[in-house]
Specification:
The complex is a heterodimer of chains A (about 775) and B (about 150). Chain A is an alpha+beta fold and about 775 residues long. Chain A is built from 30 helices and 30 strands. In chain A, the strands form seven sheets. In chain A, strands 16-28-27-26-17-24-25 form a seven-stranded mixed β-sheet, sandwiched between helices. In chain A, strands 8-7-9-15-10-13 form a six-stranded antiparallel β-sheet, with no helix packed on it. Chain A has a six-stranded antiparallel β-sheet with strand order 18-23-22-21-20-19, with helices on both faces. In chain A, helix 20 packs parallel to helix 25. With about 150 residues, chain B is an alpha+beta fold. Helix content of chain B is about 20%, strand content about 40%. In chain B, the strands form four sheets. In chain B, strands 2-1-4-7 form a four-stranded mixed β-sheet, with no helix packed on it. In chain B, strands 3-11-8 form a three-stranded mixed β-sheet. Chain B has a two-stranded antiparallel ribbon with strand order 5-6. In chain B, a hairpin with a 6-residue loop joins strand 1 and strand 2. The longest helix of chain B is centred in the N-terminal third of the chain and has 24 residues. At the A-B interface, helix 11, helix 12 and helix 28 of A face helix 1, strand 5, strand 6, strand 7 and strand 8 of B.
Chain lengths: ~775, ~150
């Protein structure tokens, strides 16, 4: 059994991935294959004894795509970036070309139809009378076939997989309009070609597709960021000499030297030296971890102080960093693609329109026994009017406004996918360190326990700690600086490794440290045991301060909750979301933080590699899961989740992997993002309603179906129509005129103009959206004033 | 090819087959298209700046082949359409076109201007593009002879 995630090139629409899955999945020996159009990846599982990878590759090639096998040289990140940039530029050119060509047509027809203008369909150029239709024909042909080519290609792929998505609808509708216009104008002197229908429709849709392409370009950015983390070179001891080699030349069992401040190149076990290592990038642990001989080090983490020598145990693709990269890739490739709402509608709309158009033809030609031409024209009219011009605008305009609005509140949404999925989220998993909490310790309690005043004790403590670089020391310094500004100088500073610090401030001996240090100083801390225990139960780190051999204070430090974390969680709970906390920390700390913030379900001691699995399990329970995190260790989980929310203070990788980024680092924005997503999607549906309603109501008129109501027998106006015509003046006459004719070109023009305007206005209304939380704050401020 | 398109195909074939059956065997005698071979020449004029066809009512016999000369007196565009007979032609400014169709069915069929052409006042009455509508009355030969 072989499991692989490979790159697939050449896919041009979501149907392509369906096509691959469907046809390759049928091959004997292929157990499963899941192709993702957005990530350009296929995750497959197959039995090598029954089918070889070469065979699968061959098969995929036959379908017109290219599978990059592991033995083939894939494109480098840079090359892919170039290709991607080129693709976006090409999309942009298409949009510009299309609008340049379509503008004269759209403006001309809109003006005439909206304002019922007297017009002449020809101009005199250089003494020749030129029929404008020739110009429109020349303008719309490249739109239909060059700009519109991807729609034909995608439609064909869709038809092959049996789907009738938006591409099929577009290809059908615009082809009907174009061919009717071109053939009708050139050979039959028809009164009204529908040039504007195909030109405007294709232009609007490719504009929407362009926005999509821009959003999609970021799919591989996360991996790029991860690769950047890797050290480029390493110092390896060879034949007793230290040589610098590129990282890919390190072999297992090589002895590697890492100086302070350098990145550890690969995974290994320390053979010499000790140091604090900042593993935040990989494990998410907020404090540097002290490590010594025999302990493991992880590639891409940073050696902070001592010189280390270690034996490489895992190199190349086996390192933890590469495993994380692999997991991100896999998670992105297997995530279910979202389906465009228009695609969903099209699946039913297209068959309905085809059948209806044939029924209309049958009604006119067979049933009413009218000439063939009458039936054919009504049939084409149905196809032409059925494809709503504003359809291509419905989703992009709402998404653009929604994304813009979100940005106002400091929420970056990558593409429409985030908006389309966020409101569906049922479960939200939060990473603890750096997401719910600040990610570094602060002094939470400072209790004077001796005769000394609290202020004095704090000032002395803070002064002594200025000698240290330890994160816990920084917490005390910060607290002191906050209160006193400048701190007195410390003399004779000494760091007692693993125990605490010693120093002299203004002639007084100050010692700060843990119980081990206290024991070594023979200071009895038993009297404060109950307080210390209470603090420790709250998952706080407790140290003692001794001045001139007397215990003066107990200092407790902990990583604390971010401001508003609690309010955000409460609001999410009120919205009925299930909240889970995932952390690599110990259960005690996890429970303490969970209790503070109000999360009931906490999963502690989850290894970085397992975070994605936790999400997967939740998804297998049938839930739509969002993951909020900030670290590299969170990135596989962010990729696996239906929605990855990267918290602003986080690492670049998390930011690239996440679909939603909270710039302000304020967790209440999670609430806003979800609410805004729901609002935007509602807008999209409304837009689709407005886009379709004019055209859908025009379909019966195009087909002449309305005659069943407006005419009592064929050709004879019904009594009620005559009544309206006689009693409502000019409006009555207009109604009469429309009711007795089939698709008048004014109707097509009206449908186009009104649906576009309705859609755009409806989307713009979203700009007035203010999240309820912001409203609440505004109200509170008003009351305070 | 998949189910969806297969089903569409089957439905379309069924509709067409049903239609052919109906038109061949079930269509009432009175509804069957009639052609007599008679040719009738008529002239219809879009009156200058009146937003009106002249004449507004045209009588012809069922089965007549109609050759209509349609004159556009205006210096802007009009159109000429009869849905029932699949006629939809444009009339460029100040031009004359010829339209041919066979009136195979009995009844009143509207003909109208199918190109937006503005509006104006004619003898202090507001007239518009939407007033350019008339009807073709196709009379049954049978009722006449009876």
């Amino acid at each position: 059994m072989t499991k692989l995630v490979l790159k697939v090139k050449g896919m041009h629409c979501t149907s392509c991935s369906t096509l691959i899955d469907k046809l390759v999945g049928k091959q004997p020996g292929v157990i499963s294959i899941k192709t993702n159009y957005g990530a350009e990846k296929a995750a497959m599982e197959f039995d090598e004894s029954k089918i070889s990878l070469e065979k699968i590759d061959e098969f995929i090639n036959k379908l017109g795509y290219d599978l990059i096998r592991p033995d083939e040289k894939g494109f480098s990140v840079e090359e892919e970036e170039v290709v991607e940039a080129k693709r976006i530029l090409e999309a942009k050119r298409r949009v510009i070309a299309s609008f340049t060509l379509a503008a004269p047509i759209i403006i001309y027809y809109m003006a005439i139809h909206m304002f019922n203008l007297q017009h002449v369909h020809s101009i005199t150029l250089f003494g020749y009378l030129i029929d404008l239709n020739y110009i429109y024909w020349i303008l719309s042909t490249p739109i239909q076939f060059v700009v519109g080519w991807p729609f034909y290609r995608n439609a064909w792929t869709s038809i092959r997989v049996g789907s009738a998505n938006m591409d099929v609808l577009v290809a059908l509708g615009t082809s009907a309009a174009y061919f009717y216009s071109a053939i009708g104008f050139l050979f039959f002197n028809i009164d009204h070609p529908f040039w504007e229908s195909s030109a405007a429709l294709l232009s609007f849709i490719i504009l929407g597709r362009y926005f999509e392409a821009v959003a999609k370009g970021r799919a591989s950015a996360a991996i790029k960021e991860l690769l950047k983390l890797e050290a480029k070179e390493a110092h390896v001891i060879k034949d007793g000499k230290e040589v610098t080699v590129p990282i890919d030349q390190i072999q297992v069992n090589d002895i590697v030297v890492v100086r302070p401040g350098e990145k550890i190149p690969v995974d290994g076990i320390i053979t010499e030296g000790k140091s604090h290592i900042d593993e935040k990038v990989v494990t998410g642990e907020s404090f540097p971890v002290g490590k010594t001989v025999g302990e493991e080090v992880i590639g891409a983490t940073v050696n902070q102080e001592g010189l280390l020598k270690f034996r490489a145990t895992k190199v190349g693709k086996d390192t933890l960093l590469y495993q994380i990269i692999h997991m991100v890739e896999e998670a992105q490739a297997t995530r279910a693609p979202i389906q465009n709402l228009v695609d969903k509608i099209s699946e039913y709309f297209v068959p309905a329109v085809i059948v209806l158009s044939v029924l209309v033809f049958a009604g006119w030609y067979f049933w009413a026994a009218l000439p063939f031409r009458a039936g054919l024209m009504r049939m084409i009219a149905v196809l032409v009017i059925s494809c709503p011009c504003a359809m291509g605008l419905a989703t992009p305009t709402a998404l653009i406004v929604g994304i813009g609005r979100a940005a106002k509140f400091g929420i970056i949404l990558k593409g429409g996918e985030a908006l389309e999925k966020a409101y569906k989220v049922q479960t939200i998993a939060f990473d603890k360190t750096g997401t719910l909490t600040i990610g570094k310790p602060v002094v939470t309690d400072f209790a004077a326990v001796g005769d000394m005043k609290e202020d004095e004790a704090l000032q002395l403590a803070a002064s002594v700690e200025t000698g240290s670089e330890h994160p816990l020391a920084r917490a005390v310094i910060e607290k002191g600086k906050e209160k006193f500004g400048d701190l007195p100088e410390v003399k004779d500073f000494e760091a007692k490794a693993g125990m605490g610090v010693y120093g002299k401030v203004g002639g007084r001996e100050v010692m700060i440290g843990n119980t081990v240090y206290m024991d070594s100083l023979k200071i009895n801390v038993e009297s404060q045991k109950s307080l210390a225990e209470k603090l420790q139960n709250e998952a706080k780190t407790v140290v003692y301060e001794v001045v001139d051999k007397k215990l003066v204070a107990i200092i407790a430090m902990a990583d604390t909750l971010k401001p508003y974390a609690k309010e955000a969680i409460q609001e999410l709970k009120r919205m009925g979301k299930e909240i889970i906390m995932i952390t690599g920390d110990n259960p005690q700390t996890a429970a303490a933080i969970g209790k503070q913030v109000g999360i009931d379900r906490t999963l502690a001691q989850v290894l970085p590699q397992d975070k994605a699995n936790v999400i997967k399990k939740l998804q297998e329970e049938g839930k739509t899961v969002a993951m909020a995190g900030d670290g590299i260790n969170d990135s596989p989980a962010l990729a696996q989740a239906d929605i990855g929310i990267a918290v602003g203070s986080g690492t670049d990788v998390a930011i690239e992997t996440g679909e939603i980024i909270l710039v302000k680092d304020d967790l209440r924005d999670v609430v806003t993002a979800i609410q805004l997503s729901g609002k935007t999607i509602k807008k999209v549906w409304e837009n689709l309603f407005w886009a379709f309603i004019y055209n859908v109501s025009a379909i019966p008129i195009a087909g002449g179906i309305h005659f069943l109501v407006t005419q009592s027998s064929f050709g004879v106006p019904a009594a009620w129509v005559v009544y309206i015509a006689q009693n409502y003046g000019s409006l009555g006459q207009i109604f009469f005129s429309f009711s007795q004719a089939t698709l008048r070109p004014e109707i097509a023009g009206f449908a186009m103009a009104f649906s576009s305007v309705s859609v755009v206005l409806n989307s713009l209304a979203l700009r007035r959206y203010v999240p309820p939380i912001e409203k609440k704050i505004a109200r509170a401020l008003a009351v305070a004033k | 090819m998949s189910n969806k398109y297969f089903i569409i195909g089957v439905v379309v074939v069924l509709i067409i087959a049903g239609g052919v059956m109906y038109r061949t065997f079930l269509l009432p005698e009175s509804s069957a298209p009639v052609t007599t071979g008679e040719v009738k020449y008529i002239t219809i004029t879009a009156k200058k700046n009146e937003w009106r066809f002249e004449p507004e009512t045209i009588e012809i016999n069922r089965g007549d082949k109609v050759i209509a000369t349609v004159v556009n007196e205006d210096d802007y565009d009009h159109g000429f359409a009869i849905d029932a007979f699949g006629v939809s032609q444009r009339m460029p400014a100040s031009s004359t076109i010829t339209v041919e169709f066979t009136a195979t069915q009995e009844g009143d069929f509207p003909f109208y201007c199918s190109v937006p052409c503005g509006e104006g006042e004619v003898d202090s009455v507001q007239r518009t593009h939407f007033d350019m509508i008339g009807k073709i009355q196709v009379k049954s030969l049978i009722s006449e002879t009876q």
